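Please check this one:

***
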Amino acid sequence: MGAIAAARAEQRRTVTVEQLRRRGWRGRLAVLGPAFVAAVAYVDPGNFATNFSAGAGYGYLLVWVIVVANLMAMLIQSLSAKLGLATGRSLPELCREHLSRWGTRFMWAQAELVAIATDLAEVIGGAVALHLLFGLPLLHGGLITGAIAFGLLGLQSRGHRPFERAIVFLLAIILVGLVSTLFRTDVDAGALAAGLVPGFAGIDSLVLATGILGATVMPHVIYLHSALTQRRLVCRSAEDTRFLLRTGRTDIVLGMGLAGLVNLSMLVVAAALFAGTGVPGTDTLEGIFAGLGTQLDAVAAYGFAIALLASGFASSGVGTYAGQVIMEGFLRRRIPLLLRRLLTLAPALVVLGFGVDPTQALVLSQVVLSFGIPFALAPLVWLTAKRSVMGELVNHRVTTAAAIVVTAVVVALNGVLVWETFGG
C-alpha cells in the first residue's frame, strides 16, 4: 500500500510536458536523469579494473578504445531511450512481443547471465574498496555492498527522482575522486594523441580492449534505459514528443560524456604514473591504491578508493534494477526485490569466499559482458528501424547503418578474441 500511495503522490506532483516546455531551460533540467542512472553502469568497478590495467600495462595505446566505446555508448543509449519514449515499453517487453517463445527464453537466459556478471564486478569492487578504506574482509564488504544497493532501490518507492538524485550524487563522488587526480598528473600529450590511433600489442591487449568495451557498452543498461524513459512523462502532442527527444539527447550527451571523462581519466592516470615505471602490482586494485600513494600521495590513493566505493554502491543498485526490468519484460514475472538481490549477490560472495583474485575476476567479468552486447544490440537496432514499432520516431537510415556498424565491430572484436585465445 505504501508503494501505491507513493506512486499516486508522484503522479499528482507530475507536471505535463507542455508545462515543462514553457519553462525553458528549467523544464529541460527537470527532464534530465535517466542517462545519468545509465552512466553509472559505465563507470562501475569493472571499468576501474580494465582501464587502470590497460593504462599500466600498455600506456596510452588503448585510449582510442575508450573514445570509440564512449561514442558507441551515446548512440546505443539514445536508441534505447527513444525506444522507450516511442512505445511506452521496455526492450525486453518488445522482444517478448516480437520473438518466438524459445527465442524469448534464450534472450532472457543470456540477459540474466549478463546481469550476474555485472553484479559480480560491482559487488567485488565495493568489497575491495571497503577493504582498502577500513580493512574489512572482502566477504563482509560484499555483504555491505549488497545491502547498500538494496537500500538505494528502496528509494524507488518514493518515485523516480529520489533514486536518480542518490545515483547522481554517487556519480559526482566518482568524478571528483578520479578527475582531481588527473589534473595533478603529468600527462604526455604527444603519447596521448598517438593513443587515438587504433592498434593492439598482442592477445593480452586485445583481451583488455574487449574488457574495456564490455565495461563501457553495458548490455544490462541497454535493456534498462528503455524502461527508464517509458511512461515517465505522457506526451499529448507531437511537440511534446520532440521536446522529450531533444532533451533526452542532451541527457545522454551529458551523462555519457561524464562517464567517458571518468574512464579516460583512469587510463591516462595509470599510463602516466605506472607504465614502464616498475611499480609493482598495478594489475590489481590493491596495487593501484598502493601505487597512487607512492607516485603521488595518500590523497590520490584514498580518492581512488572512495570513488571505487561509490561506484560499487551505485552500480550495484542500478544492476539490480536492470535485473528486475529483464525478468519482468521477458517473462512477465516479478520476484521480491530482496530475493532478487540475494540471487544476484550469491555468485559474487562465492568468488570472494573462495579467495579468487578480485581484479582478475573483474576483468574477466567485463569480457563476459562484451559477449552479451550483440544480443542486446541486434534487437534494439531491429526494433528501432521498424516504423510499425516506432512510428514517426523510426530510425533514419543513416542511424540504422551506424548502429549496424557498431554491432558488427563488437561481434568482430569478440570473434578475433575467441580465435586468438583458442585457435590462434
Confidence is low (pLDDT under 50) at residues 1-13. Residues 18-423 form a domain with the Amino acid/polyamine transporter I fold (CATH 1.20.1740.10). The chain has one domain: 18-423. Residues 148 and 213 are 27 Å apart (CA to CA).
